[in-house]
Amino acid sequence: MSAFQIINKEPDGYARRGRITTAHGVIETPCFMPVGTKATVKGLTPKQLEDEVEAQIVLANTYHLFLRPGHDLIKKLGGVHKFMGWTRPILTDSGGFQVFSLSSLRRIDEEGVTFRSPIDGSSHRLTPESSIAIQEALGADIIMAFDECTPYPATSKQALDSLELTARWAERSKQARKRSDNLLFGIVQGSTFPELRRLSLEKTVAVGFDGYALGGLSVGEGSAAMYDVVNEFGSQMPEASPRYLMGVGTPEDLLIAVDAGLDMFDCVMPTRNARNGMYFTSHGPLSIKQARFSEDPEPIDASCDCYTCRNFSRAYLRHLFMAKEILSSVLATIHNLRFYNQLMAGMRKAISCGEFQQFKGAFLADYKSLG
User: Fold this and answer.
1) 138 phi/psi in degrees, rounded to 5
2) What's the rounded Cα separation, in Å, for the pair 135 and 153?
3) Is 161 a catalytic residue?
4) Among 147, 253, 259, 266, which one carries the catalytic annotation?
5) 3-class DSSP state for residue 340?
6) How confident is the model at residue 371 (pLDDT cuts 50, 70, 90)?
7) Strands 106-108 and 278-279: what pairing?
8) Which residue of 143, 158, 161, 180 is 20 to 30 Å from 43, comparing CA positions?
9) Are strands 278-279 and 286-287 parallel, antiparallel or unpaired?
């Protein structure tokens, strides 16, 4: 049986409900993956992620775990699941995006990337082969081919060179694979150039992967340009495989991307914004630091069933934030991740009922965006 099954499809669009089977459990899609960069989702215990957020899968960061504490140590201690006390699926990125973000601290050549650690300045090397070896040592359920994340803005020539390097690295990543108990995803680059995205997609599909990702987005190109890529290429990726939009995004982004046929998402926004006192609600983002909430007895969102909304007032949550209490981040993170998971669950239900377009329209009519 294939690791991915399509359960339902929207009759008037590309939205689909699916199921990914992994060594550590089943993932119902569309799904959102909380970001657990250093083998922890900031502010929450694994039990809170399971019981309060109901997260199906988390994302861990190959680059950061390679630098500290090291993949060999994590392997020695039983793998990343045992290391962080998480029994459900884990996806690891390849490290390509993190190396890209180092800019002046890295040097790219045909074989891989040499970079200096921002921790202690020591020199390190990542190649397609070592990235796969690290991810397999960590024991992730879904691993990513090593890619070059194309910067934005980029010229057509720069984007072409980048995607061709990514395609060569994709082949090497697949050849480097040793384990059979994980799923390997390839990454499509090409910046905002449709003809280059199409070329990258063709090259990536030719290599052959268990799943496919759109990379190189949410790097400064703006929502309109991102939506152009998502709407044109979301449904063009292989239908029988999971489709992953990397590093995205806002609730509106998720709805638009699911409508375009994408299945999997990750973003630091719900957790990072939580630590800054910003809550996502069904009517739009809410900044708890505002003085108007100082005596407000209402929950953050009356339609939310999370622990935070069931038990605490806006007045109390504002007090925690203004007092710089650790609990402020904990409660905000629980709420934001639960909100995202509720949104994904709502989409799955709507797709099953053939009502995704109505669901999308009703949500967006009530939601006031960050912009």
Assistant:
1) -65, -30
2) 30
3) no
4) 266
5) helix
6) very low
7) unpaired
8) 143
9) antiparallel
| Among candidate residues 71, 67, 73, the one with its CA nearest the CA of residue 115 | 67
Is residue 303 predicted with pLDDT exceeding 50? yes
- Mean of the per-residue pLDDT values of the chain: 96
Question: What's the pTM value of the predicted model, to 2 decimals?
Answer: 0.97
Kindly state the average pLDDT of the residues 345-359: 98
Instruction: Provide the residue ranges of all domains of the chain, joining segments of one domain with +.
Output: 4-267, 268-371
Report the alpha-carbon distance of residue 56 to residue 34 in Å, rounded.
9
How many other β-carbons are positioned within 10 Å of the β-carbon of residue 122?
Answer: 9
Write the pLDDT tens digit of every residue in 89-135: 999 999 988 877 776 678 999 999 999 998 999 999 999 999 999 99
Distance of CA 323 to the CA centre of its chain: 31
| Interstrand relation of 142-144 and 183-188 (parallel, antiparallel or unpaired) | parallel
Q: Which of 167, 164, 69, 149 has the alpha carbon at shortest distance from 102?
A: 149
User: Nearest-CA neighbor of 211 among 178, 246, 247, 179?
Assistant: 246
Task: Show the beta-strand stretches assigned E in the chain.
Answer: 4-9, 16-22, 25-29, 31-33, 58-60, 90-92, 106-108, 113-116, 123-126, 142-144, 183-188, 211-214, 243-245, 264-266, 278-279, 286-287
Contact between 262 and 243 under an 8 Å Cβ cutoff? The reply is yes
CB contact set of 317 (below 8 Å; sequence gap of 6+): 279, 288, 293, 300, 308, 328, 331, 332
May I ask the CATH architecture of the domain 4-267? Answer: Alpha-Beta Barrel (3.20)
Q: What is the spatial distance between Cα 52 and Cα 320, in angstroms, rounded to a whole number?
A: 20
Read off the pLDDT of residues 201-252 as tens digits, 9 standing for 90 and up.
Answer: 999 999 999 999 999 999 999 999 999 999 999 999 999 999 999 999 999 9
**Alpha-carbon Rg for the chain in angstroms:** 20
Helix (H, G, I), strand (E, B) or coil at 337: helix
pLDDT at 1 over 60: no
Peptide bond preceding 30: is omega within 30 degrees of 0, i.e. cis?
A: yes
Q: What tens digit of pLDDT does each residue of 47-56 get?
A: 999 999 999 9
266 is a catalytic site residue: yes
pLDDT for the residue 105? 77
DSSP secondary structure letters along 71-97: HHHHHHTT-HHHHHT--S-EEE--SHH
Which position among 93, 141, 253, 263 bears the catalytic label?
A: 93
